[in-house]
Fold these 2 entries.
Entry 1:
Amino acid sequence: FEPGCQSGVYITVGTGKELRKRPLSPALRLAPNPADAHAHIELPYRAGYIHLFDLHGQPLMPRLFAADGVFRLDTQTWPSGIYLIHYTNEDGTAAGFERFVVAHGG
């Protein structure tokens, strides 16, 4: 993975000078981003689910599960654009969203 490919959801907590960011969910690893023919996704959990949406909130496919938390998406037939990944651990107690881009050259 390239530097800067990690992501996460953060909340700012504290008051006054004590403001700091704390992650709501561990970071997802996604490469390449933007993707052309494929995207490799590693969840921050041993096992988990991903659900993919377009920017209108329409699901692109059924929710996917990986026992090892690793996914390889074939994006070569997807239209170029911005997509959202909703990810959760196996029991659904931790979750996050990540944005990724599909951009086909040419």
Entry 2:
Amino acid sequence: KKFTEACDLFETVIREHPALMAEAHLGLANIFADQGDTISAICQAESALSSHPALKKTTEKAQCHAIIGIIYTQKKMTSKAREHLQKVAELDENHPAVFLLKNLPR
């Protein structure tokens, strides 16, 4: 995997194409999550959710919340995981991360 090249491309998109900023932050969040850099992944997913213009596609919003929810699930931070995974379920009930919500301890 060429993570460095992909990160550089997403950073260029963020700088030069503000209309695609949210999607680029989501791309970075996916890369950092794949690399196990959970702090950066959460930061990028939150940046995608708060970027202007906001994410237009519901599936992209769901993916941002899924990344955050999955990381919190792995860290055993159940209440935070539930919050984000519930948002995934509201946005896309067929998203694979919804399975985690159904199996979170109460």
